[in-house]
Amino acid sequence: xxxxxxxxxxxxxxxxxxxxxxxxxxxxxxxxxxxxxxxxxxxxxxxxxxxxxxxxxxxxxxxxxxxxxxxxxxxxxxxxxxxxxxxxxxxxxxxxxxxxxxxxxxxxxxxxxxxxxxxxxxxxxxxxxxxxxxxxxxxxxxxxxxxxxxxxxxxxxxxxxxxxxxxxxxxxxxxxxxxxxxxxxxxxxxxxxxxxxxxxxxxxxxxxxxxxxxxxxxxxxxxxxxx
Amino acid sequence: xxxxxxxxxxxxxxxxxxxxxxxxxxxxxxxxxxxxxxxxxxxxxxxxxxxxxxxxxxxxxxxxxxxxxxxxxxxxxxxxxxxxxxxxxxxxxxxxxxxxxxxxxxxxxxxxxxxxxxxxxxxxxxxxxxxxxxxxxxxxxxxxxxxxxxxxxxxxxxxxxxxxxxxxxxxxxxxxxxxxxxxxxxxxxxxxxxxxxxxxxxxxxxxxxxxxxxxxxxxxxxxxxxxxxxxxxxxxxxxxxxxxxxxxxxxxxxxxxxxxxxxxxxxxxxxxxxxxxxxxxxxxxxxxxxxxxxxxxxxxxxxxxxxxxxxxxxxxxxxxxxxxxxxxxxxxxxxxxxxxxxxxxxxxxxxxxxxxxxxxxxxxxxxxxxxxxxxxxxxxxxxxxxxxxxxxxxxxxxxxxxxxxxxxxxxxxxxxxxxxxxxxxxxxxxxxxxxxxxxxxxxxxxxxxxxxxxxxxxxxxxxxxxxxxxxxxxxxxxxxxxxxxxxxxxxxxxxxxxxxxxxxxxxxxxxxxxxxxxxxxxxxxxxxxxxxxxxxxxxxxxxxxxxxxxxxxxxxxxxxxxxxxxxxxxxx
Lengths: 227, 572
Ligand code: SF4
Ligand code: FES
Ligand code: FES
Fold this sequence. Notes:
The complex is a heterodimer of chains A (227) and B (572). Chain A has 227 residues and is of the alpha/beta class.
């Protein structure tokens, strides 16, 4: 299956040297005393400031809810790392939001493992259901769909992650319906641990002891398009 | 310590890296991300080789041998990137010359690299000098098994005033971003995005205006980064390139001049680890038009076109009539050879020794490759014993009627602010000039178009006292024997493959000018003081012999990398 041609890839998000739209004023771009202390701790954890880039970006995203250029630059200036470098890091990870997102960001995995088990089936079902394409946000501002690469839960493919938080495993269309209904009511899915076949013998069934919800490993489905 | 590469044993120094070690010995291993002046990220994976170490008995430390007595080699389980592999004693290496497996891995890597590369070589400026193109031909697969639409990325992105990005061609070697991080330290570029959609970019709102920005075009191993001024100007195989020295300032930056049909179209740095390493500032490239535009065609007498013989006669008459009341101005833009001949001419007519106009402005440089001195040969003048001109004194002399003739070698005293038009009233002016825009030209009784650094043979001495040799990169109208001989070496000609019958051939691109070492002896001869030199090399040989400040600086010795001259202290 070929990807639809994405025209926007042909244009960079900005033209070098041209001013970019701002979303936060200088008055808003300040750290509280607590945050400053945290940043100082992050910096002390690494031999060079480069090491603290990711943690401070994360802090900024939690504070401002997303990372427009002026926030990235604010982070860069704070920890004295070149702006371009911090921007490079911010754009590398889908978990850092470079655009304003909906309340719930649904990161649907279509990487190899999930792909053969129906990752695209789930993605397309979700797109149809919410009436938006990947990368877009619903008009009510509630949901954003993102297509992401492997989230490291291939054993329970297909799967998705909600707003950089809990994973939803072993997805089916019914499970997607239930998830959307819950989220509309403001109910986030609970953290769920899925066992792996080898856990049964080696670890007495579960490698995590810190969670209530333990699901036993099940053989993943095969993508509809592969039948 | 020894290493065995493809069955051949070599000695090495501890710390040597395999790829550079091989390249230094003429063993080519394909590579993209490695650059000798940058850190070694080993990210392109093109330089793979098979390597191993001899097995040793743990207890005794002795070599383990097989039944034929040959040492057993423990190969690393995975292929190694030779760029980052430090040599160790007894290491055994198999490159693509020796191992079909290695050759196959390199071919596979190229196939992967070409999956999303647009392969638009027919319209790409880099074609013909592209490491990706060359290495894909030499080491790549016959074709591709990839039959899907390629990933699309931004094209024609003006990263800054001088550099244009075609992100689809980028292979993400990170040479460009490492340059701005490690060498120029402007930190203006970073790889953005991830996977098959990433490319180098500035941060939002920022522009790639690094004064050294175009170096990334030189080191980019594909056509992703190109110089704005040179885009679509010429194919590299239509041009000749000549190793020479830039006249941009006192650093003596080593360059290659790229020429088509006698126009300088591109100037790029030439490696010289004692001078500019691999780099040059953008400003030193953007002067290329000054060698092509506003050039005079043939000598003039009081503004009227003349021929060279008549012009020489006129100069000789003027100098004879002046009876020694002549001021000679040498030039920090002219070569050592030409300034030297000017000194001899001054002596022959009984005038004071020439002086030169110093252009040094303390603090105007950048402490790297942009010098405080915009002129290329100030040290050459100093070492010849010339003094910087005192404008006040000269004005007084001119006003006091002590002077009848001003003889100017490759300078523009009015533009330099040393003299004004009024100072020259009633003075005969003889001027060797590069450009029709020379402000002193309007006052010249005899104007002699001079060959510029790209058209002559000669020597510049840079501010650290390194004597370096100029080679003619383009032809002038009257190619004499010396220029012709040198052109054979420097490959300057109408065009490497072109002829005067080509459609695009334009005779006007050949300037009707003369090098100083052609003109000055012709004038001296008419004054009864013949200077007979077979070539500029002979002039320099005489200078090097007679003047200890130039000791050792023969053309032969200077060759491509120059000769460090004895220290003579700071110029005064
Ligand atoms: S633009 Fe060129 S130098 Fe920069 S990463 Fe891409 S291929 Fe390498
Ligand atoms: S492929 Fe989807 S989680 Fe690994
Ligand atoms: S040159 Fe060795 S990995 Fe790129």
